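ok, trying the design again with the full structure, not the truncated one.
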């Protein structure tokens, strides 16, 4: 690692050095944005290795895609002053347009949702990739600093030597080549015997004149765009009109209203990409996207109950037609049912988990769904938004036993069906 050859730097030093000398994205050899090419060039490895690692992680519920988007935003393109993310914050120039940066930021929202919904395996793969990059920089960070964005400290910058001073004529006396400067603490040169008053210029010990202070330049007045304010006002009006319309048309649900407001904010971001301003809309779009996602999948408008639901029927006739909650967890334990009979029920949750335990020898037909979350049904698993499984399992003893037909769904949360 640059600056630490022969020593083992600390974690904090490694992270700081990585950011100070992070790879830049070259213009040649790139496939999309040059992320893999930049990392490979920085650490002198084959770019194919980096691309394969990103593809493998991308197939792991989008972890590789998330890493690529983040690197695209944080790694500057070659010859740029700042990365795309830094440029939109006014910290330097980037060749990436504001519209592209906005699109990349918006793409992070669903990608992050995919990764988080993947559970521990996906998140552990993401952490493994970050750890691999950390070790790569620790052991190979010093190999090719020329392919990095290096912010050189002022103390290390080259300062050209001062031009030599022409000597005085011989009749004034010789001036030593290493005459002390004023303020250096060394004694001033004594005047010659013919000049007891010290009139010779080379005997003077005067301080160097300092440059007059430069008055600070007044900051240019910043043009304030009205795109952000107008867009926010239109979004509020749209949401208000949707709430009023919901009293007359059932189509205007909570998720629909949030989606319409989010659409107005998205149009404002597109306009601001061309006219400038509107950066504050990103802070509005992120929480509004989360609200729209939750309301769309949870469907709070049709739930009458909120809280946890737990049931353990021991007879077929004790099983209800449905077990529902708008927010909470539903746990339905059917493992105590008799060995014969037929059961049909559904479990639906707005936001929360749904867990069903069926008898060990039951013949089960189950449909498991999750709007945002993971699904695990009798040994089969699926994760990510819109996960769904349709499973038919006759049990370890084959056909025979109580027949159970289930429909289990969670709008935002995990679904699990296991045998008791």
């Amino acid at each position: 690692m640059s600056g630490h050859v022969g020593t083992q730097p600390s974690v904090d030093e490694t992270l700081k050095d990585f950011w100070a000398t992070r790879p830049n994205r070259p213009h040649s050899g790139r496939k999309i944005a040059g992320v893999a090419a930049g990392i490979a060039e920085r650490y002198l490895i084959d770019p194919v290795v980096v691309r394969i690692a990103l593809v493998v992680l991308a197939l792991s519920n989008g972890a590789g895609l998330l890493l690529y988007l983040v690197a695209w935003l944080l790694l500057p393109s070659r010859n740029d002053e700042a990365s795309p993310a830094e440029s939109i914050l006014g910290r330097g120039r980037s060749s990436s347009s504001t519209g592209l940066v906005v699109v990349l930021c918006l793409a992070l929202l669903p990608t992050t949702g995919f990764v988080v919904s993947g559970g521990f395996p996906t998140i552990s793969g993401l952490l493994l990739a970050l750890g691999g990059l950390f070790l790569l920089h620790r052991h190979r960070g010093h190999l090719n600093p020329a392919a990095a964005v290096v912010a050189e400290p002022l103390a290390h910058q080259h300062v050209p030597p001062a031009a030599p001073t022409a000597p005085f004529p011989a009749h004034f006396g010789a001036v030593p080549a290493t005459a002390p400067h004023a303020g250096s603490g060394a004694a001033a040169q004594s005047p010659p015997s013919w000049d007891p008053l010290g009139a010779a210029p080379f005997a003077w010990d005067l301080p160097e004149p300092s440059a007059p202070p430069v008055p600070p330049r007044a900051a240019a007045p910043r043009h304030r765009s009205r795109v952000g304010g107008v867009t926010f006002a239109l979004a509020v009006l749209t949401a208000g009109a949707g709430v009023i319309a919901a009293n007359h048309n059932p189509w205007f649900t909570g998720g629909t209203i949030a989606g319409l407001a989010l659409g107005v904010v998205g149009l404002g971001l597109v306009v601001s990409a061309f006219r400038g301003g509107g950066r504050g809309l990103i802070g509005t779009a992120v929480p509004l996207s989360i609200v729209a996602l939750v309301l769309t999948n949870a469907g709070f408008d049709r739930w009458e109950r909120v809280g946890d639901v737990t049931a353990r029927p021991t007879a077929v006739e004790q099983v209800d037609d449905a077990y529902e909650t708008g927010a909470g967890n539903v746990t339905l334990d059917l493992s105590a049912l008799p060995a014969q009979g037929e059961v049909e029920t559904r479990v639906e949750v707005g936001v929360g988990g749904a867990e069903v335990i069926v008898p060990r020898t039951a013949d089960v037909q189950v449909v498991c769904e999750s709007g945002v979350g993971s699904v695990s049904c009798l040994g089969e698993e699926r994760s990510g938004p819109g996960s769904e499984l349709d499973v038919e399992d006759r049990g370890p003893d084959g056909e025979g036993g109580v027949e159970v037909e289930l429909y289990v769904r969670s709008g935002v949360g995990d679904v699990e069906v296991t045998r008791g």
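Keeping the full-length input from now on. The longest helix spans residues 119-140.
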